[in-house]
Amino acid sequence: MPPVSEIILFASLLIAAGAVAGILAGLFGVGGGAILVPVFYQVYGLVGVDDAVRTHVAVGTSLAIIVPTSIRSFNAHRKRGAVDMKILKDWAIWLPLGTILASAIAAYISGAALRTIFAVLSLLIALRMFLNRESWRFGDQMPGGFLNAVAGAGIGLFSGLMGVGGGVLSNLWMTLWGRTVHQSVATSSGVGVLISIPGLIGYAWAGWGEAGLPPFSTGFINWITVLLVIPVTLMTAPVGVRLAHAMSRRQLEVGFGLFLVAVSARFFYSLL
């Protein structure tokens, strides 16, 4: 058993991460996973979690924590009338399907591969946020049919591999089709609900019986982390929602971009 000082440090870091993640969930329409995954990766390393499963546990546990955080954020945005429910209904099958595929892939790829996916996607999306122009649109109406299905499944797939609630990618997709950033943020909180629940189930299955898992884990879900972090994220998510509605479109874009650059840099550094 680790020394008491290490346990206290572990708990303190997780609680701090939960507070930041909750604010980000409301502010950017993400489930908080983009901050939780790199923080969990670092904290698990401090307490000696096996490198072979460390990234997987960080991603899977992040998705588990996103479940209540996304629900809380979604309800707060919906009360303000900012959520486009039609988009969520159109993606109700495709988002979970992509997330389940992600968990199946995660069962076979390395932690370094997961971190690379996370870093590259974060950087690309950050660049889009910094260089955004009003003219950069595919159209003024969200597509339906096959393209809509591919978009939903793709968002679920890559979000599941990153351990995020889908806000990162769905924000990008919706703004390219003429949605305002505020409406995209609000609707993305609902995307997080559709991704995180199948993600929790999938990562629990994907890591079942793996060696080197931390204590009290079901597959790649660590329940100690879940129990410590969820209460904090639930308390702080409404703070982020209030901040989001007080900021301009450009402020949200630049803030989101800076945040993603920092996350990407951290994971690229971990690959050295």
TrEMBL record:
Alphabetic keyword roster: Cell membrane, Membrane, Transmembrane, Transmembrane helix
Record localization: Cell membrane; Membrane
Statement: the UniProt record of this protein carries the keyword rRNA-binding: no
Membrane-spanning ranges: 7-40, 52-71, 92-125, 145-173, 185-208, 220-240, 252-269
Domain of life of the native organism: Bacteria
Any single Pfam family the record assigns to this protein: TauE
Topology of this chain in the membrane: Multi-pass membrane protein
Keyword Membrane among record annotations: yes
Similarity annotation: Belongs to the 4-toluene sulfonate uptake permease (TSUP) (TC 2.A.102) family.
Protein name as annotated: Probable membrane transporter protein
